[in-house]
Predict the 3D structure of the following.
Amino acid sequence: MSKHITLNDFILHHQQDFAIKPSDLVQLFSDITQAAKTVSIDIRRAGLVDNILGAQGETNIQGEEQQKLDVVADVAFIQAFKSGNQICGIASEENEDFLSFDHPTSLQGKYIALFDPLDGSSNIDVNVSIGTIFSIYERKSPVGTPATLEDMLQPGKDQLCAGYVLYGSSTMLVFTTGQGVNGFTLDPVSDEFCLSHPNMQMPVIGRLYAMNEGNINECEVGLTKYIKYCQSRENQTGKPYSGRYIGSLVADFHRNLIKGGIYIYPDVLTAPEGKLRLLYECNPLAFIAEQAGGLATTGRERILDLIPQKLHQRVPYYVGSKDMVEKAMSFLS
Ligand code: AHM
Ligand code: MG
């Protein structure tokens, strides 16, 4: 049996490819994988352990009900980044404001992290795949000082590294540092993330579309026409596409990355700016999509070019196979 390439081996063998200093990257991924393993264990034991399933009894800044696991995952990632000393501050879906880590060693950190600790909240209690999404930037503020809002509000095109952890039938880490996309599977025997999906490429076109079609009557006319086009024989493949919607962005994105497809969360009457958050949901997956040959837009503009105005900004989101996203855009007026 061939020896698997671990994440650390991979980073050390590809040092020249990274915008982040390799020793910093090793530490950052040590933080991320440490938290991911904790969350993965909690998810896999969720039905057996008290105080893990169900609602926390609070709503987050988005007005959404927090699940207990949302909070467990948020704490796990914050603790890991805090103790790793590379990160000087974070912003996450579960915290209204950004956090600056004020320990003297953290103040020396050169990077900030933005993350959604547990995406797909509505699937937590029903044993359906969920994920963590993260993004790393170089700080703008001087090293040695507290992190600032300006550090957090950087355009997606300035990301140094972005990735996700998918807690599915296996636990996977997929990331890019701007030199392609690679996927690692958590080996439960060795407890190591090992390279399983090298150089991932998103097919230029697929036959899957993912959208919450319960919203179809609340969308702009161009989008309803595009969905009809997906369902018709007139589309680019000559056969109706299959509808596949998990309702966990990471899982829907990951499937489309491998098989080809489009994921859409548009602006709708009930969510006039869209539902998904630019900084820690759309930007990281847009970086990965582009690095794998796909596209990510608001339906009109490239996601990675948007200048963020606020931490929890929402945007309409069209992401996936290049030809499919371009076709969807051509239907919007
Ligand atoms: P969350 O961060 O609160 O889980 O919200 C984001 C999720 C995405 O994972 C998913 O694609 C979408 O919301 C599902 O929303 P809806 O239930 O409106 O279809
Ligand atoms: Mg989310």
